[in-house]
């Protein structure tokens, strides 16, 4: 019934029935007029599709089992974490309701990091930034692009200089306060 529905030619039907009677596997392609597959003219002879054999070649179970295909590596458990530390942590959680050990470690790390990194001097940063802008402007003038960047760079330099003046005033006021406190009955001028 399937052959009739698929509109096969008589040759194709006869060919398929012969394959079924012999017990062979059905072909992947059944050509309409001959049992030989047409060879394309453009493909070289070394590139021909390989033909599948009619009978499957299965290996016996003894041959498969004799090989290393069924051998497994034995499981070797390893400790992935410190079990004593985990026990202590669990005891702390059950006793106090908090993970005390972890918080102490984190707090000490944060404190040491803050102590190690000195706060950079803003005045020195500004001096470096002004110097960088002067160097950039000199490079651009050497390349012939000075007119394009001069106004922008000079504006940035003036802003940095203004900020430096504010910092300098604050520092000088602090120094005056320190000096007046150190010298009893000193002159404020």
Automatic annotation (TrEMBL):
Transmembrane spans: none
InterPro entries attached to this UniProt entry: UPF0193
Protein name: EVG1 protein
Organism: Thalassarche chlororhynchos
Domain of life per record: Eukaryota
